[in-house]
Design a protein that fits this description.
Helices cover 42% and strands 34% of the residues. It is an alpha+beta fold and 131 residues long.
Length: 131
Amino acid sequence: MGARKRIKAEQIKEQNKQIAFARLNNSPIAPRKMRLVADLIRGLEVNKALNILQHNAKDASTSLEKLLRSALANWEQKNEGKSIEEENLVVKTIQVDGGTMLKRIQPAPQGRAHRIRKRSNHVTIIVDSAI
């Protein structure tokens, strides 16, 4: 690794130490379905986002709620003296990326086969105080 790359990598690591985030890898829900729920809470205040996720009927909302609670716990660990109620915490970014895809075969008429793609996703939530 070159010097510039190493320096840049170290800068990125230092920036990641300052922010509180949580990642969920290989969630067995399709990314398109997860994005529908993620769009509901993007940019909202944390307590309001948790309330929305608790009362949403979609299956993706339960895994996003757990992930948001994990991001809050990470924020509390990084900021030991502060409490969540005093700070105005916001879901700064929420990113849903496509994960691995399980490819299966569905038998079809006349000896043919249809491909079934079982998609998964990776979700990243960053929680920060609103400025």
